Amino acid sequence: MNVESKQSILKTRDLAILLDLSPDVVNDMARRGHLKGFKSGNQWRFRRRDVERYIERVMKLAPPG
User: Which residue in 60, 42, 46 sits closest to 18, CA to CA?
Assistant: First the structure.
């Protein structure tokens, strides 16, 4: 895996900071299928492009203001 590929993968903690959620909430969302992720060992990992799609989807659902 090259450096660019590694940068496109987020760990649970990194994603939690980005989304302003706790790591436990991020893991729960991944387990329930709300966030697209994959397991690496016993840790969740998230592709940046999947996270961007999730954020776009949530923004469309959020009421303005």
Answer: 46
**Tens-of-pLDDT digits for all 65 residues of the chain?**
444 455 799 999 999 999 999 999 999 999 999 999 999 999 999 999 999 999 999 888 877 76
Helices and strands (H, E) in the chain, number of each type: 4, 3
Total structural domains within the chain? 1
Domain with 38 in it: what CATH number? 1.10.10
Range of the domain at 13: 3-61
In the chain, the amino acid numbered 18 is: L
